[in-house]
Amino acid sequence: MSPAGRRLLLAIESSCDETAAAVVDIDSGSVLSSVIHSQTQAHAPFGGVVPEIASREHLEKIDVVVGDALAGVGTVDVVAATYGPGLVGALLVGLGYAKGLAQGWGCPFVGVHHIEGHLMAAAADPASPPPPFIGLVVSGGHTALYRFDGVGCAKLLGQTRDDAAGEAFDKTAKLLGLGYPGGIVIDQLSQQGDCNAVAMPRSLRDRSNYDFSFSGLKTAVRVHVDAALKRGERLEGQRLADLCASVQEAIVDMLLHKALLACRRLQIHTLVLGGGVAANSRLRREAVRRGQELDVAVYLPPKALCTDNAVMIAMAARAWVQQGRSSSLSLMAAPDALVEASSTALVSLSG
What we know:
Helix content is about 40%, strand content about 20%. It is α/β, with parallel strands linked by helices.
């Protein structure tokens, strides 16, 4: 235990292209440190995440990131890390590092499911809503809807059948020559655009399930770009802003239609957003506006907790520790791990 009498938890996140570490007080939930190294610049020339580069970046940065997170915080009592889903090489770096620290320090280790981390990110805010809630997790690799009743009790309601929403933003930006990551650029350009200027498809909108599809949107953008080029039109200025706004509006509409449909059907009046796309300004505004119309309270995590970070992993790990659970040091990286099976990565602390 740290000299101040606090029980501290170190969490590490390395599932994709951020190397992150955070320290939280297990008893109070206070965040004592949070450090994130983003790999955006390393992947930008390729227009997306390259797994081999991601793994190498994690290996090069994890010592510094963890060291900065631990600076001046005291003795750590529990170590946690993401075990899946994600890029297997990236997961192995953080998971192996965390297990090595736990073994060296003789303290418990907790393996955390990445999606459960996103669903628990709100717990870093004392004003966040308690479960149950509908969780919409939207990023470059994930777009899915969950019913969340607490750690270990997440149920997948629906997910994308093809591209993730963040991937749709990135592919649109690549088609338009806007660079990577695309979501931020499209969000900025959309501020000056007319979101109704270009008709964009809303796939699966009228289906009875909660699944999403964004591949048709990418095709629609390509068709629009090709048609404009044939007419001799340059997609720049207002035309570009209008197209970006229209694409963004279609993505936001599809996400919120299914999320609020789930809230209504399941009679759960709280919606929590998570993932990198949850930082999108249009999504945040529309979620609150539509939620008010339907009497659904919408919680928007601070933007710093939307992208991959270790605070969210720490919050999930803290919940498991409070239940007296930890993981075996034999826990393996699971790139396709299901959130419904997250409890299988845990055993009793006394076991």
